[in-house]
Amino acid sequence: MAIIIKSQRExxxxxxxxxxxxxxxxxxxxxxxxxISTYExxxxxxxxxxxxxxxxxxxxxxxxxxxxxxxxNDEVIHGIxxxxxxxxxxxxxSLDAGVIYxxxxxxxARTYGVGVIDSKAQxxxxxxxxxxxxxxxxxxxxxxxxxxxxxxxxxxxERGFTAxxxxxGHGVGANLHEGPEVPNFPQGRKGPKLRPGMTIAIEPxxxxxxxxxxxxxxxxxxxxxxxELSAHYENTxxxxxxxxxxxxKADGIDL
Length: 255
Ligand code: CO
What we know:
Layout: H1 8-31, H2 38-51, E1 55-56, E2 68-72, E3 75-77, E4 92-101, E5 104-113, H3 119-137, H4 145-157, E6 162-163, E7 169-171, E8 178-182, E9 199-202, E10 205-207, E11 213-215, E12 222-224, E13 230-232, E14 235-238, E15 245-246
Antiparallel strand pairs: 1-4, 2-4, 3-12, 4-5, 6-10, 7-8, 7-9, 9-14, 10-13, 11-12, 14-15
Helix pairs in contact: 1-2, 3-4
Cobalt (II) ion (CO) binds at residues 107, 170, 201, 203, 234.
């Protein structure tokens, strides 16, 4: 898929998409309590997105049936919301959402613990998030996509975790998925050079056990092969001449 360098106008639209996405994440985070179903989280997320006149990026994308991906515990990504899936104290929950504002997407994911969780689970969540910020440090023009992979990979492996290799981050813009692919591991080639105006979704998917994953019968949900926990953290990032800019953020809301 082609890598598309964005114009100033496109960047402004993506900033607004990202701001609304951050506000959406804040609302679904607040809703995440023991007893709520993953279906209800999806309903709240879609309502917030539409309240800003936006469209959920994921709804009907390749047939995906919801607006938010809700992946619990050993679910890595693409968990389908369900009325029967009730969040429990001690769960770790990955919430992944995308917003289309005037034709432009923003894509972001967060993982949270519900109530008291064990310390290894909290460490997985923290290290996954921190690995994104390690990757951000190398998001400079002249560096390559592989520098992002190395940054995530080194950070998480030094802490005893593994990076999922079956799924990758991606360019994002007028399409949810554009070039380049953004792996969370080294691929043995440098990959494309980072250039100002590139917009990429950097999204570490990190496992507590082995990196192997399985595809569930619903054709969407990805789970760890060994049943151990997994966490996901993602932001839409703009490459600039200087420091990278996180686009999926809003004033007063934690990243
Ligand atoms: Co993504």
